[in-house]
Write a structure and sequence with these properties.
With about 300 residues, the protein is α/β, with parallel strands linked by helices. The chain has helices spanning about 20-65, 65-85, 110-120, 135-140, 215-220, 260-270; strands spanning about 90-95, 145-155, 160-165, 170-175, 175-180, 185-190, 200-205, 230-235, 240-245, 250, 280-285, 290-295. It folds into three domains: about 30-80; about 90-165, membrane protein fhac (Ubiquitin-like (UB roll)), CATH 3.10.20; about 170-310, Cell division protein FtsQ/DivIB (Rossmann fold). The strands form two sheets. It has a nine-stranded mixed sheet with strand order 6-5-4-7-8-9-10-11-12, covered by helices on one side.
Length: about 300
């Protein structure tokens, strides 16, 4: 039986209709618009990124080159110049709070006022709104005889400076030099400690003495009948004190419980008038006994030690 003939592989292609052609044109146009929009979008982001980088770079250069500071400073100066024209300029400075550190009779110069003036760093006519009150206060506090300072601005033209002086309580002798020490152990370097007005102050001697002057003064002041009889206090080994009295008697205090030892000496003075006797030294460094050093001629006169535990 004969087989049917095979179908031809080269079959003629059918021509698209007008509708199909129109649909294809619309599809190609839409694809073109999508591709164009995607390209433009990518280009927009890239342009924006480049623009941002340029702006940031320009801003960084503007700040770090000092141009911004110059522009701000110029604007501030212009504003301050206008306030100065309006009468807001420095004309008067009043200093209050000085008592010890003042020009003495016979002195031509007021060196203390000169120190304050130099620390202020101001001149008449400066725009008063341009003054930094905080910076002025800190500069004045750098003067060693000034403990604290408050600066107030009163418009239109006045600056008030209120200072708190340091109070000298002792003269420190070290390596042949004399310096004033205040109640906190601060050294007042600008002032001459050998001035006559400081002769009544306690003399403290030795390395490390200023740092311990506060506790020393507190201890000595606790026995007011002994305090006027003290000549000087010597710091020994940065551990303890030797107190020298005006009659050249030396009192050797311990490194620990020195207040108790000083109270023991005060009790002995009240009961036996110890400081009126011919004694060279009283050694209080041991808690359970007291050693008294006296000349040979005075040893016949007995002195009864006071047990420190009784005080």
């Amino acid at each position: 039986m004969a087989k049917p003939a095979a179908k031809s592989k080269s079959k003629a292609k059918a021509k698209p209709t007008a509708y199909q052609q129109k649909t294809r044109r619309i599809s190609k146009w839409r694809s073109f618009k999508r591709n164009a929009a995607s390209f433009l979008k990518r280009g927009y982001y890239a342009t924006a990124a480049v623009g941002c980088a340029m702006v940031i770079g320009a801003g960084w250069w503007f700040v770090h080159s000092g141009k911004l500071d110059l522009m701000v400073e110029g604007s501030q100066n212009a504003v301050l110049a206008q306030t100065k024209k309006a009468g807001l300029s420095l004309q008067y400075i009043y200093l209050e709070g000085r008592s010890n550190f003042k020009k003495q009779p016979g002195e031509k110069r007021d060196k203390y006022m000169e120190q304050v003036t130099a620390s202020l760093g101001l001149k008449p006519g400066d725009p008063i709104l341009g003054l930094s009150v905080g910076e002025i206060q800190e500069r004045i506090k750098q003067i060693s005889w000034v403990k604290d300072a408050v600066v107030e601005r009163q418009l239109p033209d006045t600056l008030y400076v209120h200072i708190q002086e340091r109070r000298p309580v002792a003269v420190w002798q070290y390596r042949g030099q004399l310096k004033l020490v205040d109640e906190s152990g601060h050294i007042i370097v600008e002032e001459k400690a050998d001035a006559p007005k400081y002769r009544h102050l306690l003399l403290v001697v030795g390395e490390g003495a200023p740092e311990h002057t506060t506790e020393l003064m507190r201890m000595l002041s606790a026995e007011p009948e002994l305090f006027p009889l003290i000549s000087s206090a010597v710091r020994v080994g940065e551990r303890r004190w030797d107190i020298r009295m005006i009659n050249k008697l030396e009192v050797r205090l311990p490194s620990q419980n020195q207040e108790k030892a000083w109270a023991t000496l005060a009790k002995m003075e009240r009961e036996q008038r110890l400081l009126q006797k011919d004694i060279r030294a009283v050694d209080l460094r041991l808690e359970d006994r007291i050693y008294i050093d006296m000349p040979e001629a005075a040893k016949k006169e007995k002195v009864k030690p006071v047990n420190s535990r009784d005080t």
